[in-house]
Amino acid sequence: MSDKKLRWGILSTAGIARRSVIPGIQQSQTGEVYAVASRDASKAMAFAEELGIPKSYGSYEELLADADVDAVYIPLPNHLHKEWTIKAAEAGKHVLCEKPAALDAQEAEEMTAACHKAGVIYAEAFMYRHHPRYEQIREHIHSGEIGELRGIHGTFTFNSAGSKENIRFHQDMGGGSLYDVGCYPISAARMLIGTEPIAATCHAFFSPDHGGVDMMLAGLVEFENGVSLSFDCGMWAAYRNTLEILGTKGRIEIPCAFTTHSSPNYFIETADGRKEIEVPVVNHYACQADDFGRAVLEGASYPFDPMDSILNMRVIDACLKSARERVRVTC
What we know:
- There is one protein chain.
- By secondary structure, the chain is of the alpha/beta class.
- The chain folds into 2 domains: 123 residues, NAD(P)-binding Rossmann-like Domain (Rossmann fold, 3-Layer(aba) Sandwich); 169 residues, 2-Layer Sandwich (Dihydrodipicolinate Reductase, domain 2).
- It contains 9 helices and 15 strands.
- The strands form 2 sheets. A 9-stranded mixed beta sheet has the order 14-13-12-11-7-10-9-8-15.
- A hairpin with a 7-residue loop joins β8 and β9.
- α1 packs across α8, α4 runs parallel beside α5 and α7 packs across α9.
- The chain is globular.
- InterPro entries: Gfo/Idh/MocA-like_OxRdtase_N (IPR000683), Gfo/Idh/MocA_domain (IPR050984), GFO_IDH_MocA-like_dom (IPR055170), NAD(P)-bd_dom_sf (IPR036291).
- Belongs to the Gfo/Idh/MocA family.
- It holds the Pfam family GFO_IDH_MocA_C3.
- Keywords: Oxidoreductase.
- This is Gfo/Idh/MocA family protein.
């Protein structure tokens, strides 16, 4: 591996950048956080000093104009993903954009097209799928250890209902639980089943006290051969973060499926009994940064094609339409 490091610029001082992505890049083998930008120069400077980042800028445009920045991470509110991904691509920067990629599949298509035209690498930041345990889990499925796949059930809920100024409660900014956390089980099911859904049926609680966004949503996403994803997501419920993969001969249970705040271990239950699969504790944000870094620096194949973000948004579009219109929607 080359000694060269990918120099990252961070567009905003968002909490996810501070808590998770920046530490992940700093712990990675391939990257370094070189610059951060905010629309408030003093805020950017304080943020940079706190986290040991060499440069800070008082505008996103200034950061994109810095020739020493190789790639940008975009943790901006959802409605700004398209604008700044395209601007970053036009500035020649590789782009890691926070999930969900966009407000709809059309926006995601425009983003990926702009990155392709500019010749830069583009990826959606689903960090969980870079954890090595998911490659192991795919092997369990493909080996037939749990028999034929029958379905997947996922949950991702938390309670932030008391925070009335939360940007997640603004429809025009891409708020709602489906965008924020429901995208995870959808992404995981597509990755593990290995095909694209054909239809979705969803029901949601659109809260008038929270900008009319979906504070809770439950859905059924249909795949071919009778396989389905059932899931629920929410921002006004007790915390859950699970995935169950059901086969004809057994099941795989992942108690902490999308974050690794507790143990990353998972369980396999078959006729032979229940066993815990121990998994090394790794920072999946660092794994994500290294997969991205190797793609840029070494020409390695990035594990997930840019088309993946478009396909995931198509399912999200179908789920939202179904919930709003109370109908089954083809994907």
